[in-house]
Amino acid sequence: MKKYFLYAIVALIIVSCSKDNDTPEAVNEEEVITTMTVTLSPSDGSSSIILQTKDLDGDGPNSPEVTVSGSLKTGVVYSGSISLLNETETPAENITEEVEEESDEHQFFFTVGSGLDASTEYLNFDTGGNPLGTQFSLTAGLVSSGALTVTLRHEPKKPNSGLQDAGGETDIESSFNIVIE
Amino acid sequence: MINKIIYLFIFFNYIVYSQKTIVTTSQSCNYEFSGKVIDFHDGSPLAGAIVVSSNSNFFDQTNIEGEFNISNLCQKTYVFEVSHPSCNSIKYSIKISGDTKKNLRLEHHIEELNEVSIYAKYDNEKYKTFLENKISIETIDSYTSGSLGDVLNSLSGVSSFNTGNAIVKPIINGLHSSRVIIINNGVRMEDQEWGAEHAPNIDINSIENLKVIKGAGLLEFSGNALGGIILAESSKIDIKDSIYGKTIFSASSNGKGSTLTSKITKSYSNGWYASAHGTYKRFGDFNTANYVLSNTGIGEKNVSFRIGYNQLSYNMELYFSHYKNETGILRASHSHSAQDQIRAINSSQPLIINNFTYNINAPKQENTHSLIRLKGYKWFKNFGKLSFQYDYQKNRRFEYDIRRGSDKDKPSTDLTLETHALKFDLFSNLNDEIKLKTGIFSRFQKNFPDPKTGVRRIIPDYEKFDLGIYAIVDYILNDNFQLELGGRYDYSYIDAMKYYRISLWNLRNYDKIYTNIIVKELDNQILTNPKFNTNNFSATIGAAYNFKANNKILFNYSLVSRFPNPSELFSEGLHHSAARIELGDLKFNSEVGHKLTLNFIHKKNNLNFSLNPFINFINDFILIEPTIIQQTVRGNFQVWEYKQTDVQLAGIDIDLSKILNENFSLQHQFSLVKGYDYKQNEPLINISPVNTRNQISYKNLKLNNFKLVLQNEFVFRQNEYPNNDFEVYIPQTETIELVKLSRPPSAYQLFNFYSSIDFDVFKKSKLNLTFRINNLFNVLYRNYLNRLRYYSHDLGRNFSLNIKLNY
After folding, report:
1. How many CB atoms are closer than 10 A to CB B374?
2. Which pTM was predicted?
3. What pLDDT digit, counting tens, does each position of B403-419 carry?
4. Of A10, A56, B128, B682, which has the fewest Cβ atoms less than 10 A away?
5. Residue A153 backbone dihedrals phi, psi, to 5 degrees
6. Is B497 within 8 Å of chain A by CB?
7. A19 contacts in chain B (CB < 8 Å)
């Protein structure tokens, strides 16, 4: 009986003192989307307009940096393509591929704010023929300015009639201030 | 009664054989065996004890002095069995070689030994200075498909903090999680209880005694139970040849599921015993009055084994239990941002409702809890009871979220918490009036969050060492007045390895305060090595006063200290299930509580009632509250930061029962608690609303113990709550909307029906059938204390049938 006590104590002390000095490995969030780049290539062959939101600390306290490289030209049709990156990893991970592979479970939504005269159209679709939106077209209307909001929903209801009934969870939501000249 | 029959039987044998004895007595058979039967502990004589030889030829009963005298014995070895009505019998082998004189000891404290919980004072309940709220085994059995939290909810002053319907955390007098300690078979549960959505990892079917102490009085277990202590235990196994067990099958309509649980115990008169238990539970999606709660299925598989050796003065026992559950989290409750939350709150029902299924998909939790415990005790003459216990617990927790791509089937949380604990306790009667309980305790704990999840760790790697000593003195002044005084000291050392985001590290000024704990710096993260040394003191003073035979007053004051738990210290990031960013603080110190409880108990014939007011002042109380809105790529989130403040909780629990006649009885329960934050002058969040439970029971013992119970449960609206609503800009609609998180739901009342009947089946078995309807009128309601109340209503009507066979 006493022996067992002793064993138990000794075992406890050994366990207590055997501190392994391995430092835990860092976790880089695999799914985090830090950067969304929307490239708008005009049909008139002039240079592309880049809309970007970048938040390198993910859910950390820093706000995303939102940039718009220039203004759109009235009457021009732009072909848009969206690229998503996780830049907490080196090299940066391309998340667009994942989204396109799981096209059934994702959809981009483009909301044109009041004041801005523009319209969008989906150019790519999921396996069921419903919109995906990593490729789209934007037609710049009259001279105006306002917000273009790009939203990515994960597992939305498909088909849907827009954000109001799409459901799902928001993976990205960013508003860009656009000027049409 | 049984004792009397045995006496008669022995006496009858004695008369029958006495003739023979005389005949067979040879010349050498004229020796005498005499002595006293005395109490093992204090040596006092035991009158009326019976000393009988194994063939029942020789027999005597002790006189008032405890003396016995058996004559006409031969020169050989006899086995005498000594028995006494309030003790277990014991066999002595006595070698007779001439007149022999010997004192025989009996364990007179067998009733106390029957109490398996080592905390139990070795005197009766009358001398306790704190109130134990007990739950009967019948009640536990009738909740076979439920959880520990569900059963405890049936007590006044105990409610629960729920995440959906299956994750049920007990709240005692307004406090929960790290402030409520659960002792499972003598082992303090270390199952990551700090999280609000972490339910206790205990199978309700493994419990036979369940008690709640709404105070911190049990210093032998812990000095940090600011809310209270829950004791769950298996019952004591007697020293006798016996085999018994029970099997319960339960089927329920809500969730279309069932539970099967079985337990068997074998014991031998030589003291060995073994017991095994197993439970299998499976439920599909539950439903409210109107719709299916998609992805709320549960599965549970549990086993436990006990093997031990029991003697009057010592015991050794090995216990092993394994608990495994899988719990689906309401699919619609998984929101990613404030915008998602608004959509959920504004919708009258969940945004995702699918057809009923038994499948459990993400979001879900998978928990396993293994426990090995070795314990033993020995009573030493004129010294006391010395006990030791070693236990090892391993808790593994997986949380699965809705994820993308190759991460889809990977858990986003994978925590392994291992705990070793060793303790020694000594219970000693210093004299008739003063009893001493003292002990020493040590614990080593290691948490390992697996980085393979690909999600930043919610709780960091840490190692923790605890050392505690305590002493409690009970002073029995007289039969009507008792005092208890206790003190405890705990030392804790925490050594953690934690990665911080550099942006947060700098924002919080940790880069200036904690430069010395930096291990290395990466691109956007920083590895740190926070260490904590803490000393905590706790103390209790209790008094019990009995008066006018039927009345009793208990008073208890406890001073309790609790060191912040890992989430309060280290949280840093998005809490997916709550759609908010949570931030802990390394600067926290221990919270210190002063709880005063008073119990007035009146028991007379058909009327029982107790009034139990309490007040709890807690300094440096740690709570989490919203601060700012933070923008991320995903949208806007509310940031909730842990803070220390000074609070007061006060309330009263009332229990009343009245037996009207031999068939009818009434029961009433009422609980009120108020929590207030003094520093910020606002009410505390998540305080149980006032509630009352009333029931009428019909019972007919002649008619197979037939019972009918109708119960009404009324929960008032919580009118006191902090306003944590916040505004958020919705780009799609170009509007600013208010996220109405704070407003508690309306009052509701539920009716429950319960009926039960017993049948004698086979030779020695008893069959019990129970039929229960919960939420009889299928009321659609929301519960303020359900974290998912924004997303869905609570459970609708449930029919359940329990078939219990005791054998």
Report:
1. 18
2. 0.83
3. 887 888 899 899 999 99
4. A10
5. -110, 140
6. yes
7. 463, 495
